[in-house]
Amino acid sequence: MHTRSTVFRGFKRDDDLWDIEGELLDTKANALPIPGEPTLVPGEPLHGMTIRVTINDHFVIQAIAVTMDATPHRECPQAMASMQSMVGCTMGRGWRQAIERNLGGICGCTHLRELLFNMATAAFQTLAHELAEDTPQHPPPYFGTCTTWDFNGPVVTRLYPQFAGWPRQSKKNAIT
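The chain above was modelled as a monomer; its predicted structure follows.
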């Protein structure tokens, strides 16, 4: 009845910035009558949207571009202007809160917000290996965020033994 496709891509630019692109496409298997709008034919996009964020090595958004090639209502593209409020935000800790603060409720578009949520992961996947240090002084930001990267788990112990059990408790603060 419904298909949603999302695709994310990351590119390094010639100016040493990064472009992270996200696409969202919703289609219906059956005709969809939309009150006050033309009936959507099967397979025709209900939503066809793209976002391109340009970020620096610190994941700070330098520019954002949005297209809404397919929307169910002619008023939907009005939401694109508010996307500029994300310039200067960092794709890192607090990312979802920044999206909600700048684009929440009637300030933006639900579908563009959903696409932005996952663009931070695509950005991290794009930049992670390029920016990784050979011997980091601090644990990478993804440590402690899932089962695999548990500070007390086997992957951290095996690959980054210097961070196993991080943060290390002093004897004074250790629980006995």
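The chain has two domains: 2-131, 134-176.
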